[in-house]
Amino acid sequence: xxxxxxxxxxxxxxxxxxxxxxxxxxxxxxxxxxxxxxxxxxxxxxxxxxxxxxxxxxxxxxxxxxxxxxxxxxxxxxxxxxxxxxxxxxxxxxxxxxxxxxxxxxxxxxxxxxxxxxxxxxxxxxxxxxxxxxxxxxxxxxxxxxxxxxxxxxxxxxxxxxxxxxxxxxxxxxxxx
Length: 177
What we know:
By secondary structure, the protein is of the alpha+beta class. The chain has 3 helices and 9 strands, in the order αββαββββαβββ.
C-alpha cells in the first residue's frame, strides 16, 4: 500500500473514534411537555483538570451550548426551526472561596446561585435541565426532528474532553401530538 492510502486510513479511523467518543460524551434528551419542546443535556467527563485549574485560578469560566431544533428534510438540507444559546458561568472568588454561578438563555439571565461546593459547580456547568426551546403547537405532526447541541468552554486554552473545538451531539425524535 502506498503511504498516502495508509495515512488516509489512519485519519479516517481517528475521526471515526472521535465521532463515537462525542456520542458518549453528550447525553441529550428532547421532551415535548405542555406544548413546549424542552431540552435536557448532560456532558459526561467535560469538567476536565484544565477547567478545574482555570476556575481555581479565578478566571471567569463559561460553558456555552448552541442548541438547535432542526427538521429532517429528505433529499434536501435539514431546516433549522429554532436556536438558542445557553451559557453557564462561574466566577470563583479566591478570597471568599465562593463560586458565583449564572445561567443565561439568549443573553437573558435565568438563574443565579452562590456556592462553595465544587460538585454543585460541576453539575451547574455541565448539565442543562428542561431548557424551553420552541412552541410545540407549531411543529408538524408525525415529522422527524432532532436537537443538535454544540458545547464549548472558555477561557481558551481549556478544553472539553481534550478537544479545543468543543463537542457536539444530537438526539432525534418524532413529534406525535
